[in-house]
Amino acid sequence: MKELLLLSSILPTIIMASTGGNCENVCKYQIDNYWTPCLEENCPQIGEMCNPVNATTCVCSNECQMCVDDLYNECGGCTNKYGFDFNKELGAKYKKLAEEMGCSSGVVNKPMKEIILISILVCGVSLYVL
Predict the structure, then answer these.
(1) pLDDT tens series, the chain, 130 aa
(2) How far apart are CA 33 and CA 30, in angstroms?
(3) Are 103 and 60 in contact (CB under 8 A)?
(4) Is 63 exposed, middle or buried (0-12, 13-18, 19+ CB in 10 A)?
(5) Which of 3, 8, 78, 130 would disulfide-bridge 86, Cβ 3.0–4.6 Å?
(6) Which of 93, 60, 76 is nearest to 26 (CA)?
(7) What are the two backbone dihedrals, phi and then psi, of residue 85, each rounded to the nearest 5 degrees?
(8) Of 65, 61, 75, nearest to 30 (Cα)?
C-alpha cells in the first residue's frame, strides 16, 4: 500500500517532466512536419474550393477536422519563458484557416488535470486505508 501511495504522489511529477521541454519547437515541428501535410492530404477544400466560403464546397471531413484538432491538442495553450504564446501568435491564423475550410477551430484536450486529480484521489484513499 505504501508503494501505491508513493507512486500516486510522484506520478504527476514524472508525467510533467516527460512532457516538458520547449513546446514552441514542438509546435513548429508539428506544423511543418505533420499538420501541413495532414491538411494537404485530408482537406481537399483548402484554398480555391472555399473561396468564397460557402456551405456546399466547404465541408470539413472527419479526417480534416482531426488534423485541426491534433494541432490544437499539441499546441493550444503552449507558452514558454521566452514569450512564445501559441494562442496569441499563431492561434488566430490557424483558427481562421480552419474556419475557412468549414472546420471548427479545434478543441484543446489537456488530460493532465485528470491525471493529477486521479493521483490525488488515489493518494487520499491510500492514506485513508493506511
Answers:
(1) 566 545 555 655 554 444 445 889 989 998 999 988 998 888 877 666 566 655 556 778 899 899 989 998 889 999 988 889 999 999 888 888 888 888 887 544 444 555 555 666 665 555 666 6
(2) 5
(3) yes
(4) exposed
(5) 78
(6) 76
(7) -145, 105
(8) 75
Q: Which residues face 85 on adjacent strands?
A: 79
Q: Cβ–Cβ contacts within 10 Å for residue 38, how many?
A: 18
Cis peptide before 12 (omega within 30 of 0): no
CA-to-CA dists, residue 56 to 2, 44, 52, 67, angstroms:
61, 13, 11, 21
DSSP string, the chain: -HHHHHHHHHHHHHHHHHT-S-HHHHHHHHIIIIIHHHHHHH-TTTGGGGSS--TTT----HHHHHHHHHHHHHHTT-B-TTS-BHIIIIIHHHHHHHHHTT--------THHHHHHHHHHHHHHHHHH-
